[in-house]
Specification:
The chain has about 350 residues and is of the alpha+beta class. It folds into two domains: about 120 residues, no CATH class; about 140 residues, no CATH class. The protein has six helices and 18 strands. The strands form two sheets. It has a nine-stranded antiparallel sheet, with no helix packed on it. Strands 13-12-11-10-15-16-17-18-14 form a nine-stranded antiparallel sheet. Strand 11 and strand 12 form a beta hairpin. The longest helix has about 60 residues. The radius of gyration is 38 Å and the shape is elongated. The termini are far apart. Keywords: Membrane, Transmembrane, Transmembrane helix.
Length: about 350
């Protein structure tokens, strides 16, 4: 092979390499274009997905109830009782009977309703309502001054196995999973919003207390009071029957005694016997008279208490009543605890 042939072969080889490089570059460019197209399409699709997620998030962060609760003039409860706006406060009625009301509980419920968010849409299907614990009758009905229905509120079961969550529905068919602050209102009645404190003498102190046995118990029970007692003030000190009452806090506990609820059905008293009479005179000179009734059935631990001229009864149980009003027993317990503490202190010394 001469020099000319070598030059021709070298030239041919170079031209082949150039062609290969050219095709390689073209292939790389095509791949880059494909990658860019994929990136653009992916970005576009992700944008759509995030946009929809944001829309859903914004939707579920919306308030569950869009009405103005400040327009509320009347609230009907699920079972019995109606809450009515009265000036700047509220009144609680059962038929024509006016009951003591816990206004703070009413205001707190309304404030929570105003803040309540949709959180999670669970169902739009009315056939699933029973499964979710949504009853046919609402827990509440809210009305304005013209008696127009503002909204209904249905309260379902705890949600998805989490006691912190519950199902809530308004006037439409949408059921949402939201926090459980309303579970305590399910199956509500006048007792849900009643002020169940036995005494409302908030700015007064007990000046004297007379506890009398109306009917002696047939048998001695641990949870019973067997003797009358008198509490009074002498020389600036409280006395119980002739002895100085050192534990004045026991009287404060009586003053703050809270019952379990109210009983409207006056026929229920037929199942009870009058057992005790309590008369309290306050330092503002007002007087409270309480009749205490024990259930005739010894297995039934309920107690009914009638205050002054009220046409309803306060409900409590034997344990709670005797724990507060059996003063002689409480004093003995306190004295015993004080003696034991004193002896234990001396032993350490």
């Amino acid at each position: 092979m001469d020099l000319l042939d070598l030059q021709k072969n070298e030239k041919s080889t170079n031209e082949g390499e150039l062609m290969n490089n050219k095709y390689t570059l073209l292939g790389i460019k095509e791949n880059i274009k494909i990658v860019i197209i994929i990136i653009l399409i992916s970005t576009f699709l992700l944008g759509i997905i995030f946009s929809k997620q944001n829309q859903v998030t914004r939707l579920l962060e919306e308030k569950l109830f869009t009405i103005d609760f400040k327009k509320t003039a009347k609230i009907e409860t699920a079972l019995e009782g109606t809450i009515i706006k009265a000036g700047t406060g509220w009144e609680l009625k059962y038929n024509d009977i006016k009951l003591p009301i816990d206004e703070q509980r009413v205001n707190s419920m309304i404030q929570n309703l105003e803040k309540l968010q949709k959180n999670k849409l669970v169902s739009r299907n009315p056939k699933k309502h029973k499964e979710l614990g949504i009853n046919e009758n609402p827990a509440f009905k809210f009305y304005d001054e013209q008696n127009n229905l503002l909204t209904e509120i249905f309260i379902g079961n705890p949600g998805e196995g989490d006691s912190r969550l519950s199902y809530i529905k308004g006037s439409d068919e949408n059921v949402y999973l939201t926090n459980n602050i309303f579970l305590s209102y399910k199956g509500n009645s006048y007792n849900t919003f009643a002020d169940t404190k036995l005494f409302n003498e908030n700015n007064s102190k007990i000046e004297s207390l007379s506890f009398k046995i109306a009917n002696k118990s047939k048998k001695s029970e641990e949870n019973s009071i067997q003797n009358d007692y008198q509490v009074y003030i002498k020389d600036g000190l409280y006395f119980i029957n002739q002895k100085v009452l050192k534990q004045e806090k026991l009287l404060q506990i009586i003053q703050e005694f809270t019952t379990d609820g109210l009983e409207i059905d006056q026929s229920k008293i037929n199942n009870y016997n009058l057992q005790y009479n309590i008369e309290i005179q306050w330092d503002n000179k007002s007087i409270s008279n309480i009749d205490v009734y024990i259930n005739k059935d010894e297995k039934n631990k309920d107690i009914l208490m009638k205050r002054d001229n009220d046409i309803y009864y306060y409900i409590t149980n034997r344990w709670s009543f005797f724990d507060v009003f059996n003063l002689e027993k409480k004093i003995e317990q306190k004295d015993k605890e004080s003696t034991e503490d004193h002896l234990e202190h001396n032993d350490h010394n």
